[in-house]
Amino acid sequence: MPSPVKSAVNPGLEQLTLTAQPDPTQLDNIKAQLDLVLLALEALVGIGSEAMLQAAADLQLSEIVADRVSLWRLRQSSPLRKGQGRKRLDVEEARSLVLITCHLAKQNQELIRRAVGLLEQLTEQNREPHQAALLGDYLDNFNNTYQERMEDGEDTPPDQLTHLALKLLIDLLFYSAANGSRRLWMALLDRSKA
Known about the structure:
The chain is mainly α. It is built from eight helices and no strands.
């Protein structure tokens, strides 16, 4: 007889399933990708730890993301970060961060849509994204925060950071949709195998 499984705090966690437990390398890749998505959301919307903690409370995930220190430890678990604090991020913590990220993206969907719309418009006109104030601010915030927080931040060429930021912006649009948490979770699992 199988042992009883602890019931999930948030029913949304149940839709983020696994076919197999990720190995340590896959978990590192998940941590890195998830931190980059959160960084993009921070850079566009200007959210901070308070908004993330409020989202955790709204989603009944305060048991996993209880305070600023626990949130900082989760974010610092990314292998891309300078001075990594805690090396481990378990699957439950990763799933919780997925739900929090998508909850915040959904709350800011209008701004994300506007930014992606501007990007499409400028691309059609063969103009640089920096020429729109919203995108210019986003790219500056993303580049500055990446350079400040990430181990390779100062060595990464600006055009590579811009490309990453714009890709993540488009991804955020998908993660802000109704089934966004499932999409993000599947993307994280797929990218973790690369």
